[in-house]
Design a protein that fits this description.
heterodimer; A: 234 residues; four-stranded antiparallel beta sheet; 10 helices; B: mainly alpha; two-stranded antiparallel sheet; globular
Chain lengths: 234, 287
């Protein structure tokens, strides 16, 4: 077991966004978290990445309690996040955005500027321009590359298809097999159910801060997903 | 020829103001912190150099080399122990804390060194001058200006060409996302303040060798520094140098007309630039 959450409660101030969420990710696995807007998907990602502090025991990595660690300490443990909205650094060029992702890299791994440019060739052409001058899809590639530069064992991808054209989404998801070949486990947070079912080994559906459904894509029927996603009885 | 001479002296004086301002600009650029004790830190560093020179008999240049790392440590500690605790969405706490620090430093220096004005002895170069084409300039003012340029060149190298500088810029853009990159903003801030205090030490050398100083002159240096930063545009170190030069030239021109107008002319130049370019001469694209 690479990562698990145990009865994870999380929120912002008085607002509670997650209620007793249990998820589990094994080494090398691709897990999709689906759910509607406001279901708590991003809160879950931000909790795992250390942006939102939690009780130590609520999140375990390789058996160690990591719920209260800072985001910098989480990265050192091999968990990197592609944040929602991409969040490139506007003062940094494309290449600098990638380099800063690898600045605190742990040990050796296969990701380097060259292998990122091989994964997303367009970035090599654009490497000297400010990250924020790129199109949305290209920015997303930089954000993914930036997270990979730390050689993560677990990559958290928060809404990487949000606001992008279908053809661009296809290009970005085309990189996923190559990322998984590196041995990294991946959590993708998606609103696009079809996309999620296509790439994931296992799926969790969140609704109003609770896990309403989980299983492999083959096990889940359309009706079950519909009901878990929107509530009520489909 | 007298006007040319005046302008050249003003430009060189601008180098001193740029040195006052560069540390302030660096800290504000990275963590949006306005350090109201900046001027007093310059005076504190001047006393440190004075002690090393008079107490140990060192040359002022050697004293700076010793004082600079000490000031780095002081800045680093100040940031880690005090300023990091008050940084946040509210800009008032850092202002209050640095204002209090300003008063504390002034009074501590008053206790330690009395209100007598002092000067860092620099017998070798004090009165030395060189002919620069048609005008004759003091060696120390030329060194002051050259040091300001050198400090800015080095800082820009650090900011735009090193991993540390990348961390500075990323943290300035977005500290939360910088955290996701494994960067600890509070540590980055401590290094930035340490660097700023090294620049302060260089400024202190020229402040202390050029004229007399006493524990109370810090706040006035802070005002010149502020004006230089704002004229130049927040976040641009070359802009800060330009701002220093504008104030320096305005002051010497004002003084040439009437010695009473020196300080006033500098302030008027500042207001004039603000009227024409409210965001300064070289503002960052976004802020």
């Amino acid at each position: 077991m690479l990562l698990e959450t145990r009865s994870l409660d999380a929120g912002y101030g008085r607002f509670r966004a997650l209620f007793g969420v249990d998820i589990r990710v094994d080494a090398g696995e691709c897990v999709a978290i689906i759910g509607a807007n406001g279901a708590g998907k991003s809160t879950l990602m931000r909790s795992i990445a250390g942006v939102l502090p939690n009780a130590p025991d609520m999140i375990r990595h390789k058996g160690d309690p990591i719920g209260a660690l800072s985001s910098a300490a989480i990265l050192q443990r091999g968990i990197a996040m592609v944040p929602e909205g991409r969040k490139l650094f506007p003062s940094l060029s494309v290449e600098e955005n990638l380099l800063i992702g690898g600045q605190k890299r742990r040990g050796s791994g296969q990701w380097s500027l060259d292998s990122i440019y091989a994964l997303f060739p367009i970035l090599r052409e654009k490497r000297a321009v400010p990250g924020t001058a790129l199109s949305g899809g290209q920015q997303q590639m930089v954000a993914i590359g930036r997270a990979l530069m730390s050689n993560p064992e677990l990559l958290l991808c928060d809404e990487i298809s949000l606001g992008l054209a279908p053809v661009v989404i296809r290009d970005i998801y085309a990189a996923l097999p190559r990322i998984r070949e590196s041995g990294a486990a991946v959590i993708v947070v998606e609103q696009d159910i079809t996309q999620a079912l296509r790439v994931a080994d296992r799926v969790y559906c969140l609704m109003e801060g609770r896990v309403t459904l989980s299983g492999t894509p083959a096990e889940l029927t359309r009706e079950a997903i519909h009901s878990a996603y929107f509530g009520g009885h489909a | 020829m007298i006007w040319l001479d005046t302008i050249v002296q003003g430009i060189l004086l601008g180098g001193l103001y740029a040195l006052f301002a560069t540390g302030l600009s660096l800290v504000f650029g990275i963590m949006r912190l306005v350090n109201l004790a900046h001027g007093d830190m310059i005076v504190l560093a001047a006393y440190l150099i004075l002690v090393l020179v008079t107490g140990l008999g060192l040359s002022p240049w050697l004293a700076v080399l010793i004082a600079a790392p000490l000031m780095f440590v002081l800045g680093w500690l100040l940031q880690r122990v005090v300023l990091n605790r008050v940084l946040g969405p509210d800009i008032l706490p850092p202002l209050l804390v640095t204002f209090g620090l300003s008063i504390a430093i002034q009074n501590a220096l008053l206790e330690g060194f009395s209100a007598d004005s002092r000067r860092i002895p620099n017998p070798d170069l004090e009165g030395a001058s060189v002919a620069l084409g048609p005008v004759t300039v003091g060696v120390m003012p030329v060194l002051t200006f050259a040091s300001a340029v050198l400090v800015i060149v080095i800082l820009n190298r650090v900011i735009y060409g090193t991993p540390l500088g990348r961390s500075f810029r990323a943290t300035s853009d977005d500290p939360v996302t910088a955290g996701l990159m494994g960067i600890e903003p509070m540590k980055v801030f401590a290094v930035a303040t340490g660097l700023a205090m090294m620049v302060v030490t260089v400024a202190a050398l020229y402040l202390g060798t050029r004229a007399n100083f006493d524990p109370a002159i810090g706040p006035a240096r802070l005002i010149y520094a502020f004006q230089a930063v704002i004229i130049g545009g927040l976040g641009s170190l070359w802009g800060t140098l330009a701002g220093g030069v504008i104030i320096g030239v305005a002051q010497t021109l004002g003084a040439a007309v009437n010695p009473e107008w020196q300080i006033l002319a500098g302030h008027l130049a500042f207001l004039l630039v603000l009227l024409v370019r409210p965001r300064g001469l070289f503002p960052r694209a976004r802020d």
